[in-house]
Design goal:
This protein is an alpha+beta fold and 277 residues long. It is built from eleven helices and four strands. The chain has a four-stranded antiparallel β-sheet with strand order 2-1-3-4, with helices on both faces.
Length: 277
């Protein structure tokens, strides 16, 4: 049986004769918002193809703007620097487009569209160039929830509308927390401190110490939603450690509440396994 805060509102509204089909879909989207990347690889072929089509539509609209594409091309040129004002123009334009696309489709597009060597713009590439808005995954969900709040109010279901608004506010709060963690944890992560491209002994020791401390934190803070993952530039969370599946992939980075720096999830899980032996 489907569960969740949006589903609760949907059931209450349906009991009062309200058509809650959109709310049921939004619960599915909310469930996918913090899904670990391992889920994306299990998406059906149909969803993967839909994701490609949706992203192609976004790229097509972006390419219709000569100014935006000129800025993107400038960012892709070695040695060229794009001003923050120009980057904001592109981010704003992309944000306006992805407000009508469910986040799961862009997440899947990030996983199924060939990245290196592709002539097509990708979420991965735009993120690397600094053009993907920080809260793109929440954009469609927040937009739809806002519309449903208005519909519920117009239907005389003020209590349900208030409950749904609370869900939207919580999603915004989690998005802000993800944004803070992305900044804080990245700032803390300087394992190659002298930037020589080689892990020196003291850098390896610092990293190993961070893994050990995070492993202990994993044990003591297992059930609290203080954990974040980093996958291809996208911050996922907050999550409980119990929600993070070990089979989610070897390329995931893990941090605790933005205060630990990013370390490989695989290294933490391996150390936990060794301690249990």
């Amino acid at each position: 049986m489907r569960q969740g805060p949006i589903e609760d509102v949907a059931l209450r509204a349906e009991a009062n004769g309200y058509d809650a089909a959109v709310l049921h879909e939004l619960q599915d989207e909310l469930d996918g918002l913090n899904a670990v990347p391992g889920m994306w690889s299990r998406m059906t072929t149909r969803v993967a193809e839909t994701a490609k089509q949706q992203w192609a539509h976004i790229v097509g609209e972006l390419e219709e703007s000569a100014e935006a594409m000129a800025i993107v091309r400038q960012a892709m040129t070695p040695g060229e620097v794009v001003s923050e004002a120009d980057a904001d123009k592109v981010r704003t334009q992309i944000f306006d487009m992805i407000r009508v696309v469910p986040a799961a489709f862009i997440a899947v597009a990030n996983a199924v569209i060939p990245i290196p060597g592709s002539s097509m713009m990708t979420p991965w590439l735009l993120h690397r160039l600094g053009f993907m808005p920080s809260r793109w995954r929440e954009a469609h969900l927040i937009e739809q929830l806002t519309q449903e709040v208005d519909r519920l109010n117009n239907a005389g279901l003020a209590s349900e509308a208030t409950a749904l608004q609370t869900v939207a506010t919580d999603i915004e709060a989690c998005a802000a927390q993800r944004e803070r963690v992305a900044i804080d944890a990245t700032t803390l992560t300087y394992w190659d401190a002298n930037d020589n491209g080689v892990w020196d002994d003291n850098e390896r020791a610092a990293y190993a110490d961070a893994v050990s401390r995070l492993t202990e934190r994993w044990r003591s803070d297992f059930t609290r939603k203080h954990w974040f993952l980093l996958h291809e530039g996208v911050v996922i969370g907050p999550l409980r450690a119990s929600e993070i599946a070990p089979q989610s992939g070897p390329d995931l980075l893990l941090c605790w509440n933005g205060q630990s720096g990013w370390v490989a999830l695989a290294h933490v899980l391996k150390q936990l396994e060794m301690q249990q032996d």
